[in-house]
Amino acid sequence: MPLTQTIERQWYLLTSKPFKDELAEIELSKQGYEVYRPLAQRLRKQRGKLVKKTESLFPRYLFIALSELADNWAPIRSTKGVSQFVRFGLQTAIVPTELVLNLKQHEQALSERAIDLDRFHQGDVVILTEGPFRGLNGVFMSYDGEERAIILLEILHKQTKLAISPAKLLAA
After folding, report:
1. Do residues 45 and 53 make contact, with C-beta atoms less than 8 angstroms apart?
2. CDD domains annotated for this entry (predicted)?
3. Mean of pLDDT values over 105-132
């Protein structure tokens, strides 16, 4: 009975050229590489309105599954859209398989829910639209993950930090 050798592939991280992550994914796939680019819905302004766009969850980054022994790595860097492998010193960064599987498992939930992390910038004046402080103006400080924004409110002549859902804020 012939002895079959299983090809052990690991996930690595590539960077793409600016705004070329989709092109890099397509071109690498055409060459037969297993590539994964997690996608998510993002809210973007288009003609003054917020519209949902499907974009890379991690702009300029793609995962690629490779075997050190069986795969030809040479054409990867010269592929259209690809910039380079992510490295730590001289060592190419290996991404844990569990992380990639977890991203794949949760990608559907991410793509159904729009992420809007570009709407407000530090120092923007915002208006609260819900809750006990409805109608008050605040100053946007930062995002604290996808679920909360940190704003400064002036209450009784004192500046107070408040964590609130970005969905409850409007630009003033």
Report:
1. no
2. NGN_SP_RfaH
3. 76
Q: Does residue 171 fall inside a structural domain?
A: no
Whether the pTM exceeds 0.90: the reply is: no
Domain annotation covers residue 4: no
Identify residue 81 by its one-letter amino acid code: G
What is the domain range of residue 95?
Answer: 9-164
Query: Does a structural domain hold residue 2?
Result: no
Which residue, among 104, 169, 115, 113, has the nearest Cα to 138 in the 3D structure?
A: 169
The DSSP output letter for 115 is B
Q: Which helix (H) or strand (E) segment is 104 a member of?
A: helix 97-112
Contact 34, 62 (CB under 8 A): no
Q: What are the b/e assignments for 123-142, b being 16+ CB within 10 Å?
A: eeebebeeeebeeeebbbbe
Residue 169 falls within a domain, yes or no?
A: no
